[in-house]
Design goal:
42% of the residues lie in helices and 12% in strands. It is an alpha/beta fold. A seven-stranded parallel β-sheet has the order 3-2-1-4-5-6-7, sandwiched between helices. Strand 2, helix 2 and strand 3 form a beta-alpha-beta unit. The chain is globular, with a radius of gyration of 18 Å. Bound molecules: hexanoyl-coenzyme A. The site of hexanoyl-coenzyme A (HXC) has 20 residues, from helix 4 and helix 7. Hexanoyl-coenzyme A (HXC) binds next to helix 4 and helix 7.
Length: 286
C-alpha cells in the first residue's frame, strides 16, 4: 500500500522541481533514507537505492516508485558500502540506466548500543567501516557523475537553466558526538568523521560546482535507529527531553533534504543542518 503524500512530504514543495534529476542513495531501504528518496521522486527525480539486503532493497524501490506516475527507481541489493568496487559498479549501473547522477545521499550506517568495554576492536571497526569508509567509497564512486551534472546542469528545456541544481551530496549523520553519548562511542567517532568528510568535500569540490552538506537527524519516530537506541531506558528518557516536545518525523528529514537539493539551497555548502527539535542542546543533561 503506497504511503499517502501527507505522510512523507510537506505541501510547500512544487511538483516537478526535480524533473530530470537522478538521486543515488546508500542505505536507501532504511526508514529515513527511503523517505528522503520518496520525496525527491514525488517531486520529479528518478532514483537508485543501494542496500545490503536484496529483497528489502528491491521491494523498497518498487514502493518508492509509486510516489509518482512514470517514476524509475532502481533497487540494487547485495551492495556493501565497505566494498569500493561494488559501489562503483552500482554508480555505473545507475548512470547507465537513469542517465547520470545529480544528487547523492550517503545514508548507510551501522549501529548498536554497547558500553565501550563491550565493543571489540572488530565491532568498532565494523561501524567505522560502514559509516566512514562507506561514505568515502560513496563519494569516490559518484564524484565523476556529480561533476558532470554540476558542469551540465540539465535544463529540462528551461532557459536560463536552474542555477546550481546538480552535483550535490548530503551525508546523513547524527548529533551524538556533539556532547558525547553513553553506549554510542563507536558511532560518535564515526559520525564525527562523516561530518569532517562533508566539510572536506565542500571545500575541495566546491570550486568544481559540488555542494556537500550534512543532515543530522535527532530522535525520529518509527525509525530503525530509534528502535535500536530506545532499547536503553536511559537513552529513551534522554530522547524525551526534546525542547519542541515531541519526536521528529521522517517527513521532517525529507523536507530538509528537498530544501538542500532545491534551488533554495543553492548557496548552502559545508553546513550541518540539525533536524532534532533542539534535542542535542539537552544531551549534556543526561
Ligand atoms: C557489541 C556487537 C554488537 C552489540 C555486533 N557486535 N553487535 N558488539 N554489542 N550489540 C560486534 C560483533 O560481535 C562483531 O565483533 C562486530 O560487531 C561485527 O559484527 P558482524 O555482525 O559480524 O558485522 P556486520 O554484519 O558487518 O554488522 C555490522 C553491525 C550491524 C553494525 C554490527 O549492527 C549492522 O549491520 N547494522 C546495519 C544496520 C544498522 O545498524 N542500522 C541502524 C542505523 S541507525 P567481534 O569482535 O565479535 O567479531 C543509525 C542511527 C545513528 O545509525 C544515530 C541515531 C541518533
Amino acid at each position: 500500500m503506497p504511503l499517502p503524500k501527507n505522510e512523507y512530504l510537506s505541501e510547500v514543495w512544487k511538483d516537478g522541481i526535480f524533473d530530470n534529476k537522478v538521486v543515488f542513495c546508500t542505505g536507501g531501504a532504511g526508514t529515513i533514507c527511503s523517505a528522503q528518496v520518496r520525496a525527491l521522486v514525488h517531486l520529479g527525480a528518478n532514483a537508485c537505492i543501494i542496500g545490503r539486503n536484496v529483497e528489502k532493497t528491491e521491494n523498497m524501490a518498487k514502493d518508492i516508485a509509486t510516489a509518482r506516475k512514470g517514476a524509475k527507481v532502481l533497487g540494487l541489493g547485495a551492495v556493501d558500502v565497505r566494498k569500493p568496487e561494488a559501489l562503483q559498479e552500482a554508480a555505473e549501473k545507475c548512470a547507465k540506466e537513469l542517465g547520470g547522477i545529480d544528487f547523492v545521499i550517503a545514508g548507510a550506517a551501522g549501529n548498536f548500543l554497547a558500553p565501550m568495554n563491550h565493543i571489540s576492536s572488530n565491532a568498532f571497526k565494523s561501524v567505522m567501516d560502514i559509516d566512514v569508509l562507506g561514505s568515502w567509497n560513496t563519494v569516490k564512486a559518484t564524484l565523476p557523475y556529480l561533476l558532470e551534472s554540476a558542469a551540465n546542469h540539465k535544463t529540462n528545456g528551461k532557459t536560463p537553466p536552474p542555477n546550481g541544481t546538480g552535483g550535490r551530496i548530503i551525508f546523513v549523520s547524527a548529533t551524538l558526538h556533539y556532547t558525547g553519548t553513553p553506549m554510542q562511542s563507536h558511532v560518535s567517532v564515526a559520525k564525527a568523521g562523516v561530518d569532517a568528510m562533508a566539510h572536506a568535500v565542500a571545500i575541495e569540490q566546491g570550486p568544481r560546482g559540488i555542494t556537500s552538506n550534512v543532515i543530522a537527524p535527532g530522535p525520529i519516530a518509527d525509525t530503525e535507529g530509534m528502535a535500536r537506541l530506545a532499547k536503553s531506558d536511559n537513552l529513551a528518557e534522554a530522547m524525551k527531553k526534546v525542547p519542541i516536545g515531541r519526536y521528529g518525523s521522517v517527513k521532517e528529514i525529507a523536507d530538509a533534504t528537498v530544501y538542500l537539493f532545491s534551488d533554495a539551497g543553492n548557496y548552502v555548502n559545508g553546513e550541518i543542518l540539525v533536524v532534532d527539535g533542539g534535542a542535542w542542546h539537552t544531551q549534556s543533561d543526561t
